[in-house]
Target: Translation initiation factor IF-2
Amino acid sequence: CEQLEISTSTVIMKLMKLGIMANINQNIDEDTVMVLADEVGVSVVIGKVEEEAVEEGLEMFEDKPEDLKPRPPIVTVMGHVDHGKTSLLDAIRKTNVTASESGGITQHIGASEVMINGQKIVFLDTPGHEAFTAMRARGAHGADIAILVVAADDSVKPQTIESISHAKAAGVPIIVAINKIDKPGANPDRVMQDLTEHGILVEAWGGDTIAVPVSAKSGEGIVNLLEMVLLQAEVMELKANPNRLAMGSVIEARLDKSKGPVATLLVTNGTLQSGMSVVAGTSSGRIRLMTNFKGDTIKKAGPATAVEILGLTDVPEAGDVFNAVKEDKVAREIADSRKSKLREEVLARNSSTTLEQLFSQIQEGEIKELNLIIKGDVQGSVGALESSLEKLKNENVRVRIIHSGVGTITESDVMLAGTSGAVIIGFNVRPSTAVSNMAEREGIEIRTYRVIYNVIDDVEAAMKGMLDPEF
Ligand code: GDP
Model:
């Protein structure tokens, strides 16, 4: 408090919010200090507190230079559709299988690792810009290097340019893979020429961007490309401290019917161990099982390793930051405090869409249409709801069904509701926790019903302004 010139009561209040009833003479543990620092927006360096805007959540313990060891590069593949991103990743994996004779089927966890000349490279399967832009937006660390795939027979296209902008915005160096050189119409020179117009000058032409001609189809140039990735990584001197609590980002997450929440974590610093407690976004839990990209159970995962974990209580979001913490209790507290923070934010946001709010907008003449998304268990009831609801109108407003379908309420429904200002009606279907969480965050109302009449009643009431907030 002294160093930060904030009052002790502020700190005690914040601790109380975290469920810690501390007094002024009490010691608090390291994990708590980290959360607290996050709360007051400062950065902690072991032993001293540094005032600095904290953009990276809990990423506050700075590693001493002597603790840092070289780590493998994390790579994303970007480029225009059909230029060969998927094929290139496949070709890279195949190169690796023959080289390391490890064979076996790799399971899909959103990332894969390849060995070349005894050195590891991590590839993210997530489409390029998501791999770093979305992650960085949440303060997570994404890819170190972007491979920009450009088809030699098609050259620079809109998404190529988009990819360049994303990589540049994230400060991630680009290696150009000029693909499809096996094709008769291939013209690598034209690709290099066109790239200059977008600020990329390849080495062969006196610039500093590495460009490698490849064929994902024949495998030509792939090894060379991988070696160039290693070369680029070497120049970047990528380092991490394996001897600290792990941190990194969530690459993928889903709810498995039998296993519960399953998340792929990319460890970017520290070492993750099975049995440890982690907090990832607003979810937390102890790692029950940890597997690598090949599906093998592992106990430890060092820097630049992608692992799939079981044991989280909730499904985190791709791009969320994760941190290992010493105690499960602390992990839970952090997750809970983030959840309530989010809830407050959602409440504060006025773009949220609920039937009540829509009604007040109707009253003020701001809207003339009540947008609904209808999801139901069987086509019969969805159809019945649609036709009954569409008939509803009064002098001020009418109902518009912007989307309807059979099946559970999905993230895409929530997104659609967000862009169209709609309320989602679920008839005999419920959203998953992940979808509810998303809706809550986005301020989208999901109302579920079992009786058609009740739906009609509520919508009618909303239109007339008599909707009971409780339902
Ligand atoms: P993505 O949309 O960027 O992921 O592109 P895909 O990997 O799906 O490839 C698009 C099409 O190009 C597919 O039909 C591939 O078989 C083909 N393709 C990809 N790489 C090559 C290549 O090096 N040579 C040839 N001839 N075709 C390729």
